[in-house]
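Field log, afternoon session.

UNIT: design team B
ACTIVITY: writing a sequence onto a fixed backbone
BACKBONE:
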């Protein structure tokens, strides 16, 4: 069975689609742990991974990895440890690794 955003599963409050669960997380829980300006990006990574056939857990892990790497790269640039060119290249490499 291929997992999609329309796949139904039993949530804590009963049957729900993965799409509905993502919307609920976006509206509530994720907003507490991810800055609002990064939330859409994390949800996009998660959704892309699910659409590619990864399980919800693996998709969440990949989205968390993506955000952590992006944050670490940005921090390295802000601290002067890497150049703007390296920042741009690392972002491109990360997107290619996770999103394609």
């Amino acid at each position: 069975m291929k997992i999609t955003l329309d796949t139904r599963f039993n949530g804590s409050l009963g049957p729900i689609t993965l799409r509905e669960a993502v919307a609920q997380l976006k509206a509530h829980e994720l907003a507490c742990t991810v800055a609002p300006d990064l939330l859409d990006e994390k949800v996009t990574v998660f959704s892309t991974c699910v659409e590619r056939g990864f399980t919800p857990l693996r998709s969440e892990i990949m989205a968390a990895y993506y955000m952590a790497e992006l944050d670490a790269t940005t921090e390295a640039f802000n601290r002067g440890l890497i150049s703007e060119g390296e920042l741009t290249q690392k972002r491109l490499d990360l997107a290619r690794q996770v999103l394609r």
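LOG NOTE: The CA atoms of residues 66 and 98 lie 7 Å apart.
NEXT ACTIVITY: expression trials, pending approval
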